[in-house]
């Protein structure tokens, strides 16, 4: 399904041209004019501009694309790729955290546990899901679901899209750091196949809590970093105005991270980003996720755990060699 996107600042020339196309279509509908050839010519120009622009995005521009308000989120991928999803709530300790969603589902006919950070699409849903910033109970719910998957021998798929864990006072009082650390520990410990997909932002420990997996996939224009560019700039330069400089230094793009060995594979996005064609990005992720799972299914639980731990102990050496 094609969608008319919200345009980012660096897309202004494309926005102007697509606006003219819409004006021509409106004139054609109202006045019986045949302008199909002109519209086709302009659409081809838009495609060329998109191809040129998106082939040379800066790291900061990638951050903006990863945060695009129309970009599909975890629940969109769950609805598109998984059947019979049964949402499971609560950490059995404190309460429910809607920033992390998860439960049982079927993927291509096989039972799995799927867990994701959900940002929401509008004001109401963003507030409900706390903009994808989980509290301790969210990470403890994720731990519970991962242990449930291990108990029944089910593969785990995680969908990562968060700027980071919630930094509020209440979250800290309830043990935010411990909850994230335990979630990473459980990720590394479970004896079932695990695959993570960074679908938008992969921010700090809030992302790592769900991404210490056997295989890490990353969408082409997603970002994944130990800290946000704004946070890094505030620490190093005492101002978030240097966020663009920080983004360059953080090596947070999928291309950087594949080269460094932090992720395993890049999932190509539609021309102009995942928000421009949802059906295409759903199909692309489906085609990447299935072989990633098939490669792991059938391996002994101890082997899976050992390979996962070895993967993270070795991480970074590829980029330094």
Quaternary class: single chain
Task: Indicate the CATH topology of the largest domain.
Answer: 2-enoyl-CoA Hydratase, Chain A, domain 1
The SSE string, one letter per element, is HHHHEEEHHEHHEHEEHHHEHHH
Straight-line N-to-C gap: 43 Å
Task: Give the CATH level 1 class of the largest domain.
Answer: Alpha Beta
Number of helices: 15
Please mark out the parts with pLDDT under 50 across 5 or more consecutive residues, or reply none.
none
Biggest sheet details:
8 strands, mixed
CATH superfamily of the largest domain: 2-enoyl-CoA Hydratase, Chain A, domain 1
Overall mean pLDDT stands at: 92
The radius of gyration over CA amounts to 21 Å
**Count of individual beta strands:** 8
Number of domains: 2
Strand content: 15-25%
Helix fraction bin: 40-55%
- Content-based structural category: alpha/beta
The gross shape turns out to be globular
Name of the CATH architecture of the largest domain:
Alpha-Beta Complex
């Amino acid at each position: 399904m094609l969608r008319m996107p919200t345009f980012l600042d660096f897309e202004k020339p494309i926005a102007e041209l697509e606006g003219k196309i819409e004006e021509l279509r409106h004139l054609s509908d109202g006045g019986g004019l045949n302008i199909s050839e002109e519209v086709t010519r302009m659409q081809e120009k838009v495609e060329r501009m998109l191809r040129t622009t998106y082939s040379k995005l800066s790291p900061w521009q990638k951050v903006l694309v990863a945060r695009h308000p129309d970009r599909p989120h975890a629940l969109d991928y769950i609805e598109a790729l998984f059947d019979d999803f049964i949402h499971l709530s609560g950490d059995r300790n404190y309460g429910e955290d809607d920033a992390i969603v998860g439960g049982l589902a079927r993927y291509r006919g096989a039972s799995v546990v799927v867990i994701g950070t959900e940002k929401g699409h509008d004001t109401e849903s963003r507030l409900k899901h706390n903009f994808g910033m989980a509290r301790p109970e969210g990470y403890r719910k994720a731990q519970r679901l991962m242990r449930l998957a291990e108990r029944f021998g089910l593969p785990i798929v995680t969908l990562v899209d968060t700027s980071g864990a919630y930094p509020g006072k209440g979250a800290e009082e309830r043990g935010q750091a411990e909850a994230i650390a335990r979630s990473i520990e459980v990720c590394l410990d479970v004896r079932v196949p695990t695959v993570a997909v960074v679908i938008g932002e992969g921010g700090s420990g809030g992302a790592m809590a769900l991404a210490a997996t056997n295989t890490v996939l990353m969408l082409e224009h997603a970002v994944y970093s130990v800290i946000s560019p704004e946070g890094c700039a505030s620490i190093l330069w005492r101002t978030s105005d240097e966020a663009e400089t920080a983004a360059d230094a953080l090596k947070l793009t999928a291309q950087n991270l594949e080269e460094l060995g932090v992720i395993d594979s890049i999932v190509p996005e539609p021309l102009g980003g995942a928000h421009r064609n949802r059906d295409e990005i759903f199909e692309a992720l489906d085609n990447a996720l299935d072989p990633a799972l098939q490669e792991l299914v059938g391996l002994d639980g101890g082997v899976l755990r050992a390979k996962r731990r070895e993967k993270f102990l070795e991480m970074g050496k590829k980029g330094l060699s």
